[in-house]
TrEMBL record:
GO MF term set: methyltransferase activity
Signal peptide: none
Name of the molecule in the record: Class I SAM-dependent methyltransferase
Top-level taxon of origin: Bacteria
Keyword set includes Transmembrane helix: yes
Transmembrane segments: 221-244
Species in which this protein is naturally found: Neoroseomonas soli
Domain Methyltransferase: 100-191
Keyword terms of this UniProt record: Membrane, Methyltransferase, Transferase, Transmembrane, Transmembrane helix
Keyword NAD (UniProt): no
Pfam family, one: Methyltransf_25
Biological process, per Gene Ontology: methylation
Length: 300
């Protein structure tokens, strides 16, 4: 997609705002930003103005896949992440291949790769357009679903995947625990939930979080993100802007990302019916180290 097409996509989904208004939100005190930018309770839902819509997908496609290796392609990243999933599955299940639920699956890049490797995978997402892309890419078993209410029988899966910061969208922490309870409900005894991300929760919880991020999208276009940790909500209140040269910014809907430390995962995992939580992080010089990747494993 060229920049004219990107602009048309962003204009359909983001709101045009004045430069001074955007600059104020970029620089104002964190407390003021958190008040103005607090998202709605349902910011994550599907719909014409959904955050996880067309504009989100097109912007994400231009992000560097790994700061430690800017040349890596999405296909290479997907294979690397699938390798990680397969390694963990092998360690946990032995030679038996687990039946997998990928929720939310997005456009199906992990599900498609795992299907290619002959795993039995069901992919679910709330966004119908993402599911359409997933089906077109070869992920045939797809369904629309929300994490708190999975249309799945008890004990239907061995492994639940939740990849790339896809957990922690609810403003009410109790809803996050309900999602974990659903993960536990659909797992067979001895099953595993794998939650993956790269948000530095420790930095947020310890007051070391860097609020501002600038990412070049090419041809002078900038993507700006401000993320402010709000202790009362237990996560990051966020806004982003796309700025085309010589034009006023486009501003995204506000969104939210919850940040749990290791003890939180342990406590809430047990509340949802899981056993001990294991948190895995890459070695200092291994794949994923540049992104501060982590994996939480919850055993059923």
């Amino acid at each position: 997609m060229g920049m004219d097409a990107l602009k048309a996509t962003v204009a359909r989904r983001f709101a045009r705002v004045g430069t001074e208004d955007a600059r104020h939100l970029w620089t104002c005190p964190a407390e003021e930003f958190a008040t103005v930018a607090r998202p709605s309770d349902t910011w994550w839902k599907a719909g014409e103005q959904a955050y996880f819509g067309e504009a989100y997908r097109e912007i994400a496609a231009r992000f560097p896949r790994d700061p430690a290796n800017p040349a890596i392609t999405e296909d290479e990243l997907t294979r690397r992440e699938a390798d990680m999933i397969c390694r963990i599955a092998g360690e946990h299940f032995g030679p038996r291949r687990p039946r997998i639920l990928d929720i939310p699956c997005g456009t199906g890049r992990h599900a498609s790769e795992l299907l290619r490797r002959r795993y039995d995978v069901v992919a679910m997402d709330l966004q119908e357009e993402s599911l359409r892309i997933a089906r077109a890419s070869g992920t045939t078993t797809c369904a629309a679903a929300e994490m708190r209410h999975l249309p799945v029988a008890d004990g239907a899966f061995d492994l639940v995947l939740n990849m790339w910061n896809s957990f922690g969208y609810f403003l009410d922490e109790a809803d996050e625990i309900e999602a974990l309870k659903e993960f536990r409900r659909v797992l067979r005894p001895g099953g595993l939930a794998l939650v993956h991300g790269d948000l530095d929760a420790h930095a947020a919880l310890e007051g070391r979080w860097v609020q501002h991020m600038k990412v070049p999208l090419g041809d002078g276009v900038l993507f700006l993100v401000r993320q402010v940790f709000v202790a009362a909500l237990g996560g990051l209140v966020c806004l982003s802007w796309v700025i085309f040269p010589g034009e006023e910014p486009f501003q995204s809907p506000a969104y939210f990302l919850r940040t749990w430390g290791d003890a939180d995962w342990e406590r809430h995992g047990r509340a949802a019916g899981f056993g001990a939580a294991r948190i895995l992080r890459p070695s200092a010089d291994g794949p994923g180290a540049g992104r501060r990747e982590w994996v939480v494993l919850l055993e059923a």
